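Annotated sample (chain length 198).
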Amino acid sequence: MTVKWRHMKKILIIAALLFAISSITQANPIIKSTIQEGVWTNTILVFSSSKLDVYIPEDMINMNLFFTKYPENGNFAFVVYIDIKDKDMREKLVNDVKAGIDSRIIGTIGKTYPDLLKYVADVASFDMQKKQVTISREYYIDKDGELIGIRDMREINPLDKDHSLFSKISENCEDILIEAKNNPKNADIIAQLQQNRK
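Output written by the structure step:
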């Protein structure tokens, strides 16, 4: 094996690794948001299993850092996007959405194609002192990122093993917020905002 080939092989291995890492970081859904104005294209994977992936919009981290005084009061809120990969879970959810539309529990937006359901987006407020999560609204989004329907609700769940999905989401979100708060890039902005609150 020549020196030139060994050098080329190293470059190819490094390139392959960089490509693999970039594929992981880019493996986020592009969600056209009709929930709020604008387009949320930057999302962070906060939980993954064989059955579902859970994402939060990246721009909501700043909202939590700067407007909910996290972590001083132990509370934060996210729109949590749940992408169900498991066929049986998805089928049950689609049937539940159809039943909710029929019973008018779920209000529809424009044309409704619940068979194409891609995401459920929960507005979730986490209270880390009380160890509970309050779900206040649920959005159903089709495969093209268009809103199918909305269900208003107020469901309070304890953050414990019986509600392990939201328990894991809350822990991961908390870690993300702490990391962002400790990021030197955000330190000056946070300090200025805290000064303005006094």
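Annotation: The CA atoms of residues 43 and 58 lie 5 Å apart.
Annotation: The chain is about 40% helix and 30% strand.
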